[in-house]
């Protein structure tokens, strides 16, 4: 750990540049997960945009981590799970589709209701479209988007 503390200064300029870039992004995705740091429970946060990725560790899972990282910079869209601390950081919120897919898969397993199964099929179409989106012509993309509505 001492080596990491000594080397920390070497990484600060890159970290500061990544944070500045993140604060300018219109769309930011964020997730956090529990970790152990020096024997204590903590959280590893990952915030990213198309141009930057920032990793940070915190003893808390609270919204204060996002507020401090974004420093008052409000985004157009925030992508995250549905955890309360992840809400309210942008004009619009998009639920992370990977989290949603996991939740739907669980409901499909434990329920006989056809709605989760249909939602799982629809989400599969969304993921398939996302994999090809950069290769599609604008008109094709518009038609696909309308078909998902």
TrEMBL record:
**One Pfam family this chain carries?**
DDE_Tnp_IS66
Q: Identify the InterPro entries for this entry.
A: Transposase-related, Transposase_IS66_central
Transposase IS66 central domain segment(s): 3-143
> Which regions span the lipid bilayer?
none
What PANTHER family does its record include? BLL1576 PROTEIN (PTHR33678), PTHR33678:SF2
Q: What is this protein called?
A: Transposase
**Organism name:** Methylobacterium pseudosasicola
